[in-house]
Amino acid sequence: MNTLSENDADCMITESIKHPLNYVNVNVSLPDTPGVSVEAVALDDSGSECALISQTVLQHIEQTDPVVPIGEVKISGICGDSVVCPLVRLRMCPKDVEGGVVITAAVMSTLSDDLVLPSTIVRCLHEMSTTLEVNVVTRSQTCENRDEVENSNVS
Fold first, then answer.
1. Is residue 42 part of a domain?
2. Which one, of 92, 111, 110, 112, lies nearest residue 101 by Cα?
3. Using an 8 Å Cβ cutoff, are 106 and 86 in contact?
4. Is 2 exposed, middle or buried (0-12, 13-18, 19+ CB in 10 A)?
5. Is 111 strand, coil or helix?
6. pTM for this structure?
7. What is the CATH classification number for the domain harbouring 50?
8. Which residues pair with 41 in a beta bridge?
9. Is the model more confident about 1 or about 61?
């Protein structure tokens, strides 16, 4: 017979809690060559302080010259040793959207996802992909409104 003391009950996990992961499809290019881009899937990480890109994805973007890092950063995860990673500048935009934003990302050779993006960057990309509603007045509508105004002023 299994019995729990009061202390054991405080530590007991009654359910397995699984939090869904959120991903976003993006186009990634180098800032100086926006015409050469690659589609990638980025993990939206609300706890991330720095954007990360897989070395494999970066290799698909590079043409003949390798990307010159602008610095380096030490990345610490939830386990294991810290890793020193080169920092690069990237242009990123939502899939099927022109333009984009230039970000700084750490390059990791062991990253399991294409990209890991802080939620602030994902929100910025989402705002870019949101279409603005524009009110359009056609010539015929303008003429109809003018006639209505002229007829209402006649007494």
1. yes
2. 92
3. yes
4. exposed
5. coil
6. 0.71
7. 2.40.70.10
8. 25
9. 61
